[in-house]
Write a structure and sequence with these properties.
The strands form 4 sheets. This protein has a 6-stranded mixed sheet with strand order 1-2-4-3-5-14, sandwiched between helices. α1 runs antiparallel to α3 and α3 packs parallel to α10. It contains 10 helices and 15 strands. α3 links the parallel β3 and β4. By secondary structure, it is α/β, with parallel strands linked by helices. It binds zinc ion (2 copies). One zinc ion binds next to loops. The site of one zinc ion has 4 residues, from loops.
């Protein structure tokens, strides 16, 4: 057989996905019927591992020694090749809602695309399917990126199901922070001692942050705070008070260089002012903002349109939530468009969970796998040229 044209490769990739459609749907429905929370995705990882081996990938469950990556997996095909393409799969579910974020479809799309690409790409290209655990909680990709697993890849692709077709936009950088003030307790009506009220410190910090949102923080900063410890009895001066905060910024630089240092400095200033002490720690890892790759975005736009799913173009600074895909996007060219599985559906709802197991949802995911495979083939071709 001679060298295939790009057109022939694309047609073959789509035919391979059609041939696997039954198997892909079965796998996706199995995940849907057996929802598992982050870091507990053992059934998911087993069936995905089996699927990859059935399709000639070398698969490994559990990556590195990290406890966060025991339900991560990777399937490699021809990875000694000069170039490598990464397809990102997710499979964790939500408490109560099951697959209310449709990660069963993400796994299905990326598996279909990875197998098709492995069979149709030029010989100089290898393929890896990365099974990324716990997107909804600790963010498996944070640890995978930190461990350098995405190094050496030309691109990383993922499609998220949603309520409409969208390409572009970004996500916010977030680095959750806990601040604990410690003072000194005594009776509230003591004649000899007024103690040091840690709750006063925490309340002052809460108020300061409200001010800083308008006066100090860069545009796009968001802080959500709750008091997780605020004392035990009204007649005792509170000696320990804790604030938990989700702190978000438009970029990692805004967050780490401006917003968080400002909050930390203010916390220290307040503690000193009261004669209290303060401890600060990040109780969850840094999720980086999403840097979508322009070439991939324009390919997704082009191919989704060809498949009858014309996407809405989001401006590059339009941020929606936070995702660990952002951490991948700092390592390798990445894009994550949204493919509709039902008009105007919102993720994290029972309706979305229902759509993620519906006939329409599964059909869209087959289409999504083809779109991703075709985008990968065109990206590879452009890089070779
Ligand atoms: Zn979600
Ligand atoms: Zn999701």
């Amino acid at each position: 057989m001679g060298v295939m044209t790009l057109q022939e490769r694309e047609a073959q990739a789509c035919a391979i996905i059609d041939d696997m459609a039954h198997e892909l749907r079965k796998l996706s429905l199995y995940l849907h019927d057996n929802p598992e929370l982050g870091l507990e995705e053992h059934k998911a990882v087993n069936v995905i591992n089996q699927f990859l081996e059935n399709h000639n990938f070398t698969s490994q469950v559990g990556l590195t020694d990290l406890p966060e990556l025991q339900t991560a997996l990777r399937g490699d095909y021809n990875c000694e090749a000069h170039h490598k393409m990464a397809f990102l799969g997710e499979y964790d579910a939500l408490p109560e809602l099951g697959h209310g974020c449709g990660h069963n479809l993400i796994a299905m799309m990326s598996l279909g695309a990875a197998v098709a690409f492995s069979q149709c790409a030029p010989e100089t290209w290898g393929t890896t399917f990365f099974g990324c655990p716990a997107e909804e909680t600790i963010g498996g990709k944070v640890y995978m990126a930190e461990a350098g697993l995405f190094k050496g890849y030309e691109a990383a692709l993922i499609i998220h199901p949603g309520g409409e077709n969208e390409v572009g936009g970004t996500s916010l950088a977030t680095h959750p922070l806990e601040v604990t003030f410690r003072g000194r307790s005594c009776h509230i009506a003591s004649l000899t001692d007024s103690g040091i009220n840690a709750l006063d410190c925490a309340v002052d910090l809460y108020q300061s942050i409200k001010q800083m949102k308008t006066n100090t923080f860069p545009k796009g900063a968001i802080v959500g705070a709750v008091f997780t410890q605020a004392g035990t009895a009204p007649n005792v001066v509170t000696d320990k008070a804790t604030l938990r905060m989700t702190v978000r910024g438009a970029t990692v630089a805004d967050l780490e260089d401006l917003i968080l240092p400002a909050i930390k400095a203010e916390s220290s200033r307040i503690a000193t002012n009261y004669g209290a002490t303060v401890e600060m720690h990040h109780y969850e890892p840094l999720f980086k903002d999403m840097r979508q790759d322009k070439r991939l975005l324009s390919l997704f736009n082009e191919v989704m349109t060809e498949f009858g799913e014309s996407p809405r173009q989001l401006p590059p600074d339009e941020a929606d939530g936070s995702t660990d895909v952002g951490n991948v996007s700092y390592e390798v060219p990445t894009a994550q468009p949204t493919l509709t599985i039902g008009n105007r559906l919102e993720a994290h709802t029972p309706e979305f969970a229902c759509a993620a197991g519906s006939e329409y949802g599964l059909n869209q995911a087959i289409k999504g796998a083809k779109i991703m495979a075709v985008v990968a083939l065109r990206y590879a071709e452009a890089l070779e040229a």
